[in-house]
Amino acid sequence: MKSLDYIDWIVIGIYFLVLGGVALWVILQKTKNTEDYFLAGRNIGWFVVGASIFASNIGSEHVVGLAGAGADNKMPLLIYEVQAWIVLMLGWIFLPFYARSGVFTMPEFLEKRFDSKSRWFLSVFSLAAYVLTKISVTIYAGGIVVAALLGIDFWTGALATVILTGVYTIFGGMKAVVYTETLQSVILIIGAGTLTYLGLDAVGGWNGLTETVGPDYFNMWRPATDPDFPWPSLFITSSIVGIWYWCTDQYIVQRTLTAKNVKEGRRGAIFGGLLKLMPVFLFLIPGVVALALKMKGELHWDTPDQAFPVLMTNLLPSGLRGLVAAGLLAALMSSLASVFNSCSTLFTVDIYKKLKPDAPEKKLLRVGRIATIIVVIAGILWIPIMQNISGVLYEYLQSVQAYIAPPITAVFLLGIFFKRINSKGAISTLVFGLVVATIRIILELSKDSLVPGTFIHTFGSINFLTFGVYFFLMCCCVAVLVSLLTEKPSEEQLAGLTFGTITEEQKAANKNSYDWKDIAASVLVVVLVIIIMVSFTGEA
Description:
Blueprint: H1 6-28, H2 34-39, H3 46-57, H4 60-71, H5 84-101, H6 106-113, H7 116-150, H8 154-202, H9 205-213, H10 231-248, H11 250-257, H12 262-276, H13 279-295, H14 307-315, H15 320-355, H16 361-388, H17 391-399, H18 401-417, H19 423-445, H20 455-461, H21 464-485, H22 491-494, H23 504-511, H24 516-535
Helix pairs in contact: 1-8, 1-15, 3-8, 3-11, 3-12, 3-15, 4-7, 4-13, 5-10, 5-12, 6-7, 7-8, 7-15, 7-16, 7-19, 8-9, 8-13, 8-15, 8-16, 10-11, 10-18, 10-21, 11-15, 12-24, 13-14, 15-16, 18-19, 18-21, 19-20, 19-21
């Protein structure tokens, strides 16, 4: 890899100055209450909402993982980047219910729809999952990216990024997060888009790329008998994970809750869905380009995860290298800022305020900032542990989503679409899901010591995508059976929170929150998703 020169460093310096200016501008605007701090005063427009959704999603795992997947013949993983249609579900289906309930968090919504037990469960579970997976993975992968890009050691890169991101998240709250994410999205798209264009030019265009790696390389659909990525399980489980991530996870949904109204929030989700299609071209295609140039003997890298940074430093001219490096730093920082703020919101609103319902707004703001500091420290303390985790387990952390998602997706989907689901059905499903997921993870880690052919070995070794399908069906069965065998939910638990209880007035308000432009934009996103899915069939 070539190192960055002084022009690149000037560009990176300018980026940090502008970022610091935006953050300072937000921080100097007095934060009046928890709505200001956690939901940016619910006064954000659709463009910032959409850009924030995109920037929150794009993290260092995209730089390390998606480009690596493109360079390592793991094209089926592309399915996770073509889920823009699920982002549309957030805007069209879920958001109106969340907005009507007036909640700050997803656990808070579960309490309104079911009871406090479901809220407590999801609050504690989400916080633990964020610290152990999202924060640790982002910091670990980010430290590697920063160290490789800037030519500094891992610890310096990781610590500097965590502390800098933590500072503006602590003092600026959600408003600082969404506005800095908008800037970061623009830089990331310009930088990585330029690399894709120059990369394709270097390899002889799209035809030159397909001739070098072969047209079959681009097939994301493997046979149903494929041991790693059977297409039916891949599509269904990725959709289950997608609904959990895009429609029920605090990390993403919080962005739409900052919107001025449902119309702006929905448009933000549609715009976010459109932007979601870009990583295919911003990261995956450069990974394939890096492979093609390596096959031609024009580029060298040792592992697929090095494909993107090596391509960037060798292909881009001075100055542009700095811009792309700034874009990658932006991706890392925006993901960290999002998870820091989400953890702070969950702890303050769902745990502290629940325990201290009479706490004044100033006290809640102080608790929110302290919670962010604790999360930042926890992230730093986790770095040495992540350093000792093998690459296999790091990859494994990505598949854990297939075990986390099914019970939560089942509870939210059934809770909104089926009014007979009650609080006992919800908590039973969540607890059942946690127990099954824990058993699966333990057995998967120890499957080599289990007797082949036994039920326990099969349970621990079945393909994780196929397991995700069966697991989701089991969770739905538990929710429905327990609910039908126990009392019906009260009218208060249902009013306006399920499709069967929406009043005519609420229907009219929802109808007035969109027009033909929103429908046309959504149709465009769906058509683009279909085109990409059909294009990546490996046919010339």
